[in-house]
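PT: before anyone asks, these are the final sequences, not the draft ones from last week. 696 residues across everything. Please model them as a single complex and drop the result in this thread when it's through.
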Amino acid sequence: MSWFDAARERTARDILARYPKSKSAVIPLLHLAQEQEGWVTPAAMAEIAELTGTTAAEVLGTGSFYEMFKFHPVGTYMVNVCTNVSCQLLGGEELLHHVESTLGVKAGGTTDDGMFTVEDVECVAACTEAPCFTVNYRYFHRADAEIFDEVVADIRAGRSPIERGVAGDAGELPAHGTLGRVRQQIPGDRRAGVVPPEEVEGAPSWMASMAGAPAGEAAGEEEES
Amino acid sequence: MTGSYVPHAAGYVDNGGPKVVTSRFVHEDSYTLERSLATGGYEGLRSALVRPPAEVHAEVRDATLLGRGGAGFPAGVKWGFCPEGVWPRYLVVNGDESEPGTYKDRLLMERDPHQLIEGCLITCYALGLSQCFLYVRGEMALGQERIATALNEAYAAGYVGRNVLGTDFSVDVTLHWGAGAYIVGEETALIESLEGNRGMPRLKPPYFPAAIGLYGQPTIVNNVETLANVPWILANGAAAYKRMGSETSPGTRLFAVSGHVKRPGVYEVEQGVTTFRDLFYGDEFCQGIRDGHELKMFIPGGGSAPWFFEDHLDLPLEARDVGAAGSMLGSGAIVVMDETTDAVRACHRMVRFFARESCGKCSPCREGTNWEEKILARILDGHGRPSDIDLLLDVGDNISPGPYPVAAHPDEGLDAVPFPPRQTTICPLGPSSVAPITSTIRRFRHEFEAKITRGDGIPVTAAALAGEGAS
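LR: through. Structure below.
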């Protein structure tokens, strides 16, 4: 009986099949566990250890290095405000203070109703769009107190605030734990095949067949031009 | 042509210059397979697959495609470091963009994932790589969705996976999510992370994972923007690529200009032709410093780069010249600060970043960055001591001994010490924390002193004590 629910157990098997060594799946599976529960529980780590042939201690050892994994319950909505230099120059710290006073928690804290966790984060790669904050890792560019208040009002009213964010992003804002709402799916008949490195003998077979390929025609044209 | 924002490509400005990696950004659906195919997508792959792999490698080597992740090492040369006869070999794409000020790989992943996937496929073909891992920064949820969707489309349409485009060439491209750690952008830390470990850099040598990388096998690690250039090079040829940019830095680069400019944005710029002055003040670029203000300083290449000042404005955006002047173009991240900027506060924020992101493996960095941060914090809080300025430089010297790269400045009697710095650590993170400190102290020492002594030569703490006694 897996700790993961049925659909996620299938996803977990899928993920494991993509790596030549199963320990590589530890981080993707931690994300999957966080998607199911909103945080990484001890039971989840034991399950991931089982699936990847490691120990729960190794899973915690890896997971605790990374900021996105939470080993205690956090809010349904993770509000990350960037205060690194590009955002600092244009009011990122003031925005963080507004967020903290509006929600009534300091960075690192969670509101009493379990809705919001606030974090003071490092550069999120939106520097030209400063200041910037994210909610469950969806971006809100050129933000100010007003935009933040609208986003909070949307969430409290059960509306998705995503359209207020980065151009082209749309749809529902999932609860904390879900990152991409689309997963990679590799159809069985399209898979090139994953082999553990110790079982690989020599160069891929196509190297030989393609090396003699209709050499040089396209190349010749380009070099002359 | 004065350039304009492209509304659906957040922050991207079409400046009317030549386009290698942003040509599809004008289309709102630039991330779909349909749009990609309608605008020359996968043509580079098609022209690669009719040539022997070694010839494809040669084409990229001839183009002198410099790595866009920060170090600027030629990709084609790096590709040649795989030892003969050792198999399997892997490709790991570094999409863990998190250098302060850097915003380009996220845009490339969100706006044109097929171009990146095509670049990966060509690279795997050229080098006989068995599998590609596309490591995307964990926080980039939209980027992950766009790449996942693009991979699903590309697998279904026969561009990725078994028998690519009906040929014998077969390769799997696997999307992998990070989970929040700046240091994972260092290539050996990236590999550790991909193996399911804490993302700590590996001891060197070997200097290049091309010798010993993922699972101990030869591994090529390339930045997203680097690989995004590859399809164009194969479709148009190395000769055409070299007609853009300068001889030592051909092609274009993405620069994210943030901070106190009128039009911050991501610009695709010909290397070595445009200067910082053009970029900050040009009509087609940033259009000047915000109204009523003037330039105080700027960071030319991400949080790890020594800072530049007004006298560096006429340097071209060319790695060689910027290196000789004591800094680097790094990851194409330019942060512009006007005269309202508190140099000590900005310096502290940058150092706090390195202190938080130090992985803890090497003691000079683990201890040093944290002490730098604490000392700067106490200066800001009014508890600084007159000896703190020298103490900061001394701590920095323990992480990066000897003359630290600083921008040349005639008024200060400073000669440039070219990048990169010496280091007592395995990776450059610790030494990077020294850049903001030396840059600001050498140029704005008086601002530090003013915070420590309020300008009267008496330390703030001593003055406060005296004040208490008097009242």
